[in-house]
Amino acid sequence: MRGGKIKAKLRWSNLYTFSCLRPDNILESEGAHLLQGPGFSRVVVCNHPRSQRSPVRYPSNYISTTKYNVITFLPKAIFEQFRRVANVYFLMAACLSLTSVSPFSAVSMIAPLAFVVGLSMAKEALEDWRRFIQDVKVNSRKVSIHKENGVFRFKPWQKIRVGDVVKVEKDQFFPADLLLLSSSYEDGICYVETMNLDGETNLKVKRSLEATFHLGDNESFKDFTGTIRCEDPNPNLYTFVGNLEYNRQIYSLEPSQILLRDSKLRNTSYVYGVVIFTGHDSKVMQNSTRSPSKRSTIEKKMDYIIYFLFTLLVLISVISSIGFAVRIKVEMPHWWYMQPQKSTNLYDPLKPALSGIFHLVTALILYGYLIPISLYVSIEIVKVMQASFINQDLNMYDEETGTPAEARTSNLNEELGQVDTILSDKTGTLTCNQMDFLKCSIAGVTYGVGSSEVELAAEKLMADDLGRQSTESSGVLVYKYRSTQSLLNRRSDFGASESLKNRRNDFGASEIEVVTSQDRKELKPTIKSFNFEDSRLMNGNWINEFSQDAILLFFRILAVCHTAIPEVNEENDNINYEVESPDEGAFLVAAREFGFEFCKRTQTSVFVRERYPSNVQPVEREFKVLNLMEFSSKRKRMSVVVQDEDGIILLLCKGADSIIFDRLSDDGKMYLKDTKKHLNDYGESGLRTLALAYKRLEESEYLVWNNEFQKAKTTVGADREAMLERVSDMMEKDLILVGATAVEDKLQKGVPQCIDKLAQAGLKIWVLTGDKMETAINIGFACSLLRQCMKQICLTVNTDLVTQNSKKAVKEDLLFQINDALLMIKKEKDPHAAFALIIDGKTLSYTLEGDMKLQFLSLAVECASVICCRVSPKQKALVTRLVKERSGKITLAIGDGANDVGMIQEADIGVGISGVEGMQAVMASDFSISQFRFLERLLVVHGHWCYKRIAQMVCYFFYKNIAFGLTLFYFEAYTGFSGQSVYDDWYMILFNVILTSLPVISLGVFEQDVSSEVCLQFPALYQQGPRNLFFDWPRIFGWMANGLYSSLVIFFLNICIFYNQAFRDEGQTADMVAVGTTMFTCIIWAVNCQIALTMSHFTWIQHLFVWGSIVTWYLFLILYGMVSPIYSKDAYKILLEALAPAPIYWSITLLVAIACNLPYLGHLSYQRCFNPMDHHVIQEIKYYKKDVEDQHMWTRERSKARQETKIGFTARVDAKIRQLKGKLHRKYSSLTVPNTPTINS
């Protein structure tokens, strides 16, 4: 054997027609350079030594997703930091501190700024380092590259260059954009999975040029050379224009021959390809876009607060400078000790205005502590810690896949606690994207007695209906639970629909059979993708059915009409199928379970192992595959032409019911009426359906058609697609209907419970799906987004108006429907009435235009539930933008596929589900989870906590800086606007950076008003976020007022007490250093006691940070006082020798701390006693352990602590209770009326 592997003997080119097959377009020699000019300048010299290749230097295959590199980090990171207004102000202040007008030393201004900016830059560097490590992993992947003389060696991806020949093996990713040269199949076919590109799980088929088929092993590349001229790098995934010059011939290239980077080779042992685009030139990298910059609502409001404080800063600075200028002009000439005749510009009585301007600069620096310099960096630290808690939450860890939740950005943590509307995808998000074969219709008879998730919900609703009727007749409601098995046996005697129809007659009016999901779970088959139960078809019993011929043909269509490849599992000899879609896999598993096992495929044949009750051994039958017309989204059907062992030629077809029904012959509609009814029933059960049909061909008829078909296949030119479609239509008509299939895309675990909890939390939920309306509606019932008594408003386009091509008339009709629905809602008098809005993509395209979108939104917000069906990815994004921009509320979009990326990026918060549809949604998201049910904890627990923590933290930050900064203003006014600071420079440095930073960080990281269990038990607590109770303007100004009050108390109490009081034993009064240090001690005590009162939940870390900050202040005074007077100046031994021996120092500290916090303590006490918030009540119940001692009260409080909702299981229960109460009331009234005395008028 030579360097390659043995080539498989499948020549798919004999079968495929549309997506993969392109005839070799041999161009004339003069056309070799037709692709020159703008946009077509790339020339790839294949398999030459690198030194002999094109003089144009193309990028290497090294990719980088980092934001910085070694050279650009410093300038870029500094630029990012000084985009913030507050940092620009502090930079200006730091520069001015180098001048003579600065009230502080340069170190006291530069050091905090350098610390804050440096910490933020370090965070940026850490995040970028993680991206760099990920890039290194990708760039270090190994691939086999041709060196010379037919020798291939493994090299890292980053070493690949344009023109290299590479060999990629099964289940490996393609390292660059390649031109497919050959594969392990003789005709160059290969299967490609593009999940990382477009989110689709079905396999794509690629085919190389016939001219390169023979390049099948390593040695064949010894003498291979060629030249490719093609388009320049661009982001178009589905187009490619180029040609290959090889063996003195020029061949045109098509997208079907291009293998894109990050797609994966499947079902093919190996392929050879030549590199066309590398690194950032590859199409996937051309498509990579930066996620839109998102800022939280709190962060946006913080900017306004900063502007307000800056305005306040400028105002008091102007007041200070005016006061200074007046005193310089009026009073300074009389101050002989200031020597006014020798004054500088700062103190010049002749130029008071100039002196005032100089003092304005001094004041702007002096009062700069009103704006918290460490606010941004503290918030960033807190958000990173909060994100790590989300990532490590074991309750959001999926054990099946080993996938944890991930906060991909920490900027939006608090937004999770303020969501108003959730916009969700359906398939793969609410459902599993796991197809189970559940029911089928064959020859007008429905088979399959298992229940879908929707049917289980319907049975419960039916039980409610029967219960209501029995209550009216007897006043007694009796539920009789029977096993699911007895129901299945009963159903096996006749159709499932008949069983449901006659159930009430069988059991009587007051006996209601309820099939529980628990029973169903116990009986659920363990066979993946097969959940079918019906003894009439299983174990060969179908042979006894009246329509056994049709059933046989139905099973054979399932086993033969596909493009799957069987693979034998070496461990257990079972056959696994490599399929293009989950539906196809479910059909093959179903065929196998029915006794028709697809076991082998050759180049020209499909082999099916058929089991019959009369035969001991299965019979292997061969079906020669003559032609295959594969499925596409445009065709919505797939067909194969086969010849069985008896020489009979058949066309087998499966596809969308609307397509198949239009192609039936008059004789083929025998079962059409019954099949349509069954398909409607399946759709109402939330199942996905396909119709199956066939056509028998005469050999002469087939030969004539095949001749036309082969001509179309080999046609070169733009008309080829149209010719193939026309010829296919000639064959795919006059079909005979056999039956239909119904597969279930199952609900994900915990979806109904999660939706119910989110509804109780007051969240609105919209479903945006590409599925048809019937399926989406019934999934809505299964999820409890819809319920039976809910009034459905369906907006639809009048088809007659559409055919008349009158867009204006269509919009007028829709506007009338919207206004009529709004009027109906307005006139509804029942406060418990619920409305659901259902609209399809065609209608949505009209309603999203012009002013009508506002009318549509006004109707949608009035409805309890909104379901948009048949919507495109662009429409998903447009609906999300409409809700976000026009409602002004926080939106969250959640999805799992590439088609959800638009709405995920458009929403305020994007959540990606790491499911089976690739990682596109996750990569575009802000948060990722593995199951929809984890959204409950992400929002109701982490969202609630993060919102309150950040809100309280920011409010406290402004409080403490106002309390501290205004004391500087008071002192300056008290000392004649002299510009003198009462505090030592080092005190100023330590205030924000060390002494008050750790307590506020602990508040933002560890604070919990209630535990996670209580958050889930009392979902209405979540509404504190959307209602913005903790960061509205009244609360913000309340905290500012508290800071103003504290500053007044701290300054004036200190001044009043120290002004005339003896400070030392000898009777001396305190100097400025003693007053300033005492005042600063009072500030440290006041603000740290304030944060202790703010906290509801204490851990040892919070105790350490709060009380440790106070201890740190005293330790600093001791150590700073021990430093040489050259550095400590007047603060030399200030604590040990001056302050500590003085009782007045300790007394005033205690007095000020109590006085500052007494109003807040009083407010808190009053609020808890007379106007408590929800969490106050719960905290008190938990503190006195009433949740344990008085379960009745705890249950009552839990029932009250949820938002009144009209969707979810709880809403359904509430509606049931109201109905029962109403009936009991009417029954009681009817019993008491006869005893009521008659009053004659």
TrEMBL record:
Q: Show where the P-type ATPase C-terminal domain sits.
A: 922-1172
Please state what the protein is called: Phospholipid-transporting ATPase
- Return the CDD domains for the record: P-type_ATPase_APLT_Dnf-like
Specify the domain of life of the species encoding this protein.
Eukaryota
Q: Which organism is it from?
A: Kingdonia uniflora
Cite the binding residues for Mg(2+): 425, 427, 896, 900
* Start and end residues of each P-type ATPase N-terminal domain: 45-110
Q: Which residues form the active site?
A: 425 (4-aspartylphosphate intermediate)
Read off the PROSITE patterns from this record: ATPASE_E1_E2
What biological processes does GO assign it? phospholipid translocation
Q: What Gene3D superfamilies does the record tag this protein with?
A: Calcium-transporting ATPase, cytoplasmic domain N, Calcium-transporting ATPase, cytoplasmic transduction domain A, HAD superfamily/HAD-like
